[in-house]
Amino acid sequence: MGKFVKIGGILGNYVIKGPDYTKLLFDRIRFILQKPKKKKAKKDFAHFVLALPETPITKADFETQLKKKKLKKIMKDKDLVNELTNQFIVKKSKIDSLEMMRVYKEYYPDASLPPPKPKKGKKGKKGKKDKKGAAEPDEQPAEQNLVGEEVTVQESEYQTPQLEDGEVPPPREIQRASNHGERHLAFQMEEIKTIEIPAEDEMPPEDQEVRLNLPTEIIEMQMVPEGDENVAEQ
């Protein structure tokens, strides 16, 4: 004899649950973008979805956004892109990008935009290398404000003697003078006076009376012939 199996009644409100088709599409895209071994070649699909505009866009605009983010591997699989966009079609073949962002955050709560890139500062000029190979610093030292010092010039202790009228100053008198902190040496040459002696006729009568009486001696020499030197004088 065979076995009998009793089957219960079938519930009318039973809903068959299968895999989430939209999540499968997102998982497939994420897997393709994270497949490269090099870290720089890997892409995060969250950076693309969260950067979409909040207003509905066309499929052409959606593909343009893919080009800007350089998601070439996703663009090659056109069937995958079409299936994803068909899940959010609204208003005559337009894509509800805002709804796509909301659903993506539900599946992946940790999704976020990348941090802003730091601004690059201006690079200074490279320092010139000296003979030893050490690079000189780029920054030049600040110019020092040089303050000029006032130099006081002391006057010489030597004082020029006061001369009376007609007196000749000593030879090579040195006179020192200071002007604006600079020293100048002035040499005074000895003055040479020429005295003219007038003739007797031109001399005044007062000077003619004063005369020097010089003694004059007259020496008389007798000529003696040669050979008579021993002759006694008479």
UniProtKB/TrEMBL annotation:
It comes from the Eukaryota. Residues 109-175 are annotated as: Disordered. Residues 153-162 have a biased composition (Polar residues). Residues 117-131 have a biased composition (Basic residues). This is Uncharacterized protein.
